[in-house]
Amino acid sequence: MAAQTSGASPDKQRTYDAAFKTEDLRLASESRSTQAVARQLGISPKLLYCW
Known about the structure:
Number of helices: 3
Structural class: mainly alpha
Mean pLDDT: 81
Order of helices and strands: HHH
Low-confidence stretches: none
Strand content: under 5%
Distance between the termini: 16 Å
Shape: globular
Helix content: 40-55%
Radius of gyration: 11 Å
Number of strands: 0
């Protein structure tokens, strides 16, 4: 369920597997604050909305 990196460089785009996305969306739907969930997971709130 961990995030996968597509390379060693920090400016490369990260990719996430389906299980990670599903769990993140479940957490966001149970929470009142999508921003708090995103901050806890270390991802952008905009990314959650895109998923």
